[in-house]
Predict the structure.
Amino acid sequence: MNSQNSTLSLNTALVHPPFFLINGFYNVPYAKYYYVFLFFVFGVSVLGNSFVMYIIYIERSFHTPKYLAVLNLAFADLGESTALMPNLIAMFPFDSQYISFNACLANMFFVFFFSCLQTLTLTVLAYDRLVAICLPLRYHAIITMPAMAVMLTVVWAYSALLMISTVALVTRLSFCKSIVVKSYFCDHGPVFHLACNDNLVNRIMAYVNMALLLYLPLLFTVLSYVFIAGALFKIASWEGRFKAIKTCSAHLMLVAICYIPIMGIYIAAIAGTLHPNARIINTSLSLAIPPMMNPIIYVLNTEEVKEFSKRLFSRKKITATEINR
């Protein structure tokens, strides 16, 4: 009976505000120009990733394990952009900076879930390149469609489990002080720091997420390229080395675009030299730019995608000319 009363009192003691106020860009100079830039980035991200998904779907030669992972990356990019950018673009110019408590939790889940899918899919693609270069004769035996489907299913389950746990732990917090979130979306850290009860578990979860969803995938990706570099030195001809490096160039650029801004933000924050406005702009760019650049890099640097794109647009041009006649 006493345990039931204590549980009841604990539940009634929780204070969940009806809404939060997102004020991330409130003090940023020329913020409206930045919204125009973000609108452009969002448009390119949607068009680019939709195009990548479309060509992988319609072209049978792209129905391979590697392009299944690329399809998953494009879907993650599209999901992250859709979860983050429309709310961000509409929020500030139209003075709609308030977001309900439940909508805030949903926003937090989907932004981080798709961001995690992005980094983990890049790790799967690093494994694909590792097998392709270090074990070329066994590549088609190891990287099969069922094997890739299993890896991507694990990636989805892994991301979902961590993000559901992270967001669920926010519901145990009471918000009886400020409701002003000092970020540009319902960011996990700025939200749980508003709590007036103990947030140690949430703080620990933030570090766990950082380790499991940022540092661990990055470590695996770096180790993959260490082994790839070792395999490249064993290739006798420079032509063979260049060909092998070219197959990794697009993936390396995606990894750099994804990780370098985030790592830079963390290093600057630890050093204590990062202005709050600079942190907000840098983190917003680190989430907005990769979904825009990923399809552009794959289209421009993958030979088979370039060739198919040329054939596709040539066919459409010929069809349009025949219709006009």
